[in-house]
Design a protein that fits this description.
Chain lengths: ~525, ~525
């Protein structure tokens, strides 16, 4: 007969906490896999089943994350004492604090609210898609109103606001927007971002204008010449590039999806890209971008994936990793010094007659556009500043939903020097708000700032780093990021981390210096 | 604020049961997807994470399947009454009865037993792999002893035996073996199978001998000539074949794995095959086999996937579907009359100089081998009869584990006319017993019998069916199977279903007639 294991001492409350968090984490990795599979593999007709699978798993995760037993453990550990009354270590206290934050998010929202939000998310997506297709902002406006209302309610439930029933105007809105920002980037607030973006805008608008005025069209022409790149050869090239950058294919893979993304946690990172014979740089840079995300995930300490010690610091830091590899590394002369001969070997046909300088210009083509997702790395930030400005005003009540199209057009003129002909080129272009994802856009630009500041720091510490790139060696950069950024997990928020690693507060100055250094020589 | 939905009447107990079963079903489809992904996509280094994901999901499913609330609902509904005291319909009673069976499996096994079995499964696999690599049966014997003991305990917990502590000998063993058989094929027993296999053996051994004696080596030679078939072209051909057979790629896909299989439930069927340039028939027939499984799954009523009304009748019936498409259809002259020109178009190079008759012989090559997985469709059944005979004797106590190698060799001589040179070619060749999967092998042969009997019935009812094949039309066969087999779900067990659909009790006679009809003209 089965004999029970020999008795062992009862686990400590902290060990019990880890066990709860471990279960939640594993369920979350399964949800990630379902999401990845949905984008990569799911047969067309199986979407309903997948939705049901997502729902049942989400319920299971929610039940685990709001388990009263977990709450009791956290409450006990939050006093800072372990099993025998011994003090918890600083790391343990961090784990408990973050577990508490997650537990509150899981428990403070009433079930009816969560259901209403989920239902609205589906309604919102379809309303947005229809409004965009028909260029009909008026039909979408009520969805935005409702999503703003839900965002304020959510903030209020979590202690970031007054009565969730208050109207759209007044200070409550600002607190709610701070909540939305903090949700994506812990520690940040609208006031901090306003300061950073204001300074960035002051430097970036004239820089973009200078580039635009000096643009002789060569970069665009060079880019247009890159046609007919075999998908198989693109795949091989991309495999070599991502391997050399350090992506560990023993613990991850890359596949194809409509929109590139990176999913998974730690031991199994699934990235995607997309291929187009006439847009070889799009698939390559999408893959490098996702590799940046993947390297970060692979660098988080495996043993701690279930706790704050092994989780990403926030969206801004995550984005800093993807942008640093995509832009500072992937668009550099040193990178292309190494990869250009390989690129030409694979694509000798389509590259015939394209000079090295033309190729480099194609990689670094800058051209203002009305559409964020098509933007280059200079003007991209202006698209984000625009969205931040609008979100801030929506939440403060200074801007009414009905006035959005006009406000968008005015800001577009001011920042990009372009005016949308219709709302599809303006306020209807992004999906984010249809799902209530406010406070999400700023992370993209914060990521660019952090990337540039890290880049300045690593170049100062490791002056040979770009010489390494020219030899196809990216190990020194990766090791530096592993040590300074990845290994820290969630120990420090974006502001703290930047200060600690670079010795200076987060600032847009390094991004502006980097952009000037890279682009002015090409556009002058 | 969120307003609650308008009040609706409380769900009936039967509706509550469906809700429980729906949740369990969806979780099970997620587990299927994890398993599929593991074989198809999982990066090498991510196996530990996947094992943890499987474990946490299995725990979640077990908790749902053994939920006392579910047990109380089943107990209430098992009295045959609905909410208002009205009688449940026959279908509802079936759903309740099968739910009860599953609930008992989920609740009657003590947690310590389930853990011990899971641990033993891992130990068993590694012991088997090592023993096979080193041809060392003695090191594996204790694992088999233990697995037999666990099987008897499991049977006893579920009411199929006396004291789970009883020794290996005596009648208890037989009851336990009946349990193992019933687990895979509800309604079947060792006694029934013994009768069927005895009759099959009496006809099959002389048939295999006759084929062997008349073998002039042409089939083997023809098969050996099929070399250098481009993988891409194989993929395209296989796509065309499986589509024409009726596989719905809007609700499924085919990928590559080391061992072909079919996973998923209903709305998302994931099949696999494997490719080898020098074994084009292997990948093709693997794919057709899995398509047979897939068509069955796709034919189960979607609205009832979570209950017995929408689940497969058992392993034997499942295997009948894969074998019917693979053998009766895929190896027929009519099938090749249609597909040979297409096959030649895709593979004109490697097929140069191969006549139609040689190709057909290659498709239907028969040659006794010691290894089950390499066997043709004639001698395959003898491998199963051998394993059944051994399992039966192990469970009755007539055969000791230590005497297995000799018993295997003796049966191999009797049935196949071949004697293993070592245990790797004998008792160590299969993985099944290392995992405690006794009573599983017979399903393969039962599937062949059922397939042949269905085939006889459909040909009698639809005499034009093979003429359809020759025009590439398989719709009439699929419609017949949909109506007679797939739509029934678990309403009838293998014996009942066969009797209902063919009007006769299950018998090996149709299989023997089919094999004689197909193979004697080729080997005479």
């Amino acid at each position: 007969m089965v004999s029970p294991h020999s008795s062992s001492p009862a686990p400590t409350p902290y060990a019990q906490l880890l066990s709860h968090l471990g279960r939640i984490h594993k369920l979350e990795t399964i949800a990630q896999l379902l999401g990845w599979d949905e984008q990569v593999n799911l047969p067309k007709g199986s979407a309903d089943l997948r939705a049901e699978q997502h729902a049942v798993l989400a319920e299971t995760i929610h039940a685990a994350a709001s388990d009263p037993e977990l709450g009791a453990l956290i409450a006990r550990l939050a006093e800072g004492k372990g099993a025998a009354g011994d003090a918890l270590s600083a790391e343990e206290r961090l784990v408990v604090r973050e577990a508490q934050r997650d537990y509150e998010r899981a428990t403070k929202l009433p079930v009816a609210f969560v259901r209403a939000k989920a239902a609205q998310s589906s309604v919102g997506f379809h309303a947005w898609a229809k409004a965009r297709a028909e260029d009909d902002f008026a039909s979408y406006a009520p969805v935005l109103e409702r999503n703003l209302e839900l965002a304020r309610e959510e903030a209020a439930y979590l202690g970031w606001g007054g009565d969730p029933c208050t109207s759209a105007s007044g200070e409550g809105g600002s607190r709610a927007y701070d909540y939305m920002i903090d949700k994506h980037d812990p520690g940040l607030s609208a006031a901090v971002i306003e300061g950073l973006f204001g300074e960035l805008r002051a430097g970036l608008v004239p820089l973009a204008r200078e580039i635009s005025e000096n643009d002789d069209g060569r970069a665009k022409a060079a880019r247009a010449r890159l046609r007919g790149f075999s998908i198989n050869a693109q795949r091989e090239f991309l495999d070599e590039v991502t391997r050399r950058l350090g992506f560990d294919y023993e613990h991850g893979r890359i596949d194809v999806s409509l929109h590139p993304f990176c999913a998974g946690t730690g031991a199994d990172i699934r990235m995607t890209t997309r291929f187009n014979e006439d847009e070889p740089l799009d698939s390559l840079f999408s893959a490098i971008h996702e590799t940046g995300h993947g390297l970060y995930e692979q660098g988080l300490p495996l043993a701690h994936h279930a706790t704050a010690l092994g989780k990403a610091a926030g969206m801004g830091v995550h984005e800093s990793q993807s942008r640093l590899w995509e832009n500072q590394v992937g668009r550099s002369r040193a990178f292309w010094a190494f990869f250009e001969p390989r690129f030409r070997e694979k694509f000798s046909g389509p590259l015939r007659g394209v000079s090295s300088e033309e190729l480099y210009l194609a990689v670094n083509a800058v051209e203002p556009t009305l559409i964020r997702v098509d933007a280059d790395e200079v003007t991209y930030n202006l698209h984000i500043i625009l969205r931040f400005e609008i979100e801030r005003q929506l939440f403060s009540g200074a801007l009414k939903v009905g006035d959005l199209p006009e406000a968008w057009a005015a800001l577009s003129r001011e920042l990009l020097g372009l005016e949308p002909k219709n709302d599809r080129e303006g306020v209807l272009q992004d999906v984010h708000w249809s799902d209530g994802a406010f406070g999400y856009f700023p992370s993209y630009c914060l990521g660019n700032m952090i990337a540039a500041q890290l880049w300045e720091a690593v170049r100062a510490e490791e002056p040979e780093i770009e010489a390494d790139f020219a030899h196809g060696d990216f190990g020194r950069l990766l090791a530096w990021l592993r040590k300074n950024v990845h290994a820290a997990g969630k120990r420090h928020d974006a502001l703290d981390l930047t200060q600690r690693v670079t010795g200076k507060p987060l600032s847009p100055a390094p991004l502006l210096r980097y952009l000037r250094e890279r682009y002015l020589p090409l556009y002058s």
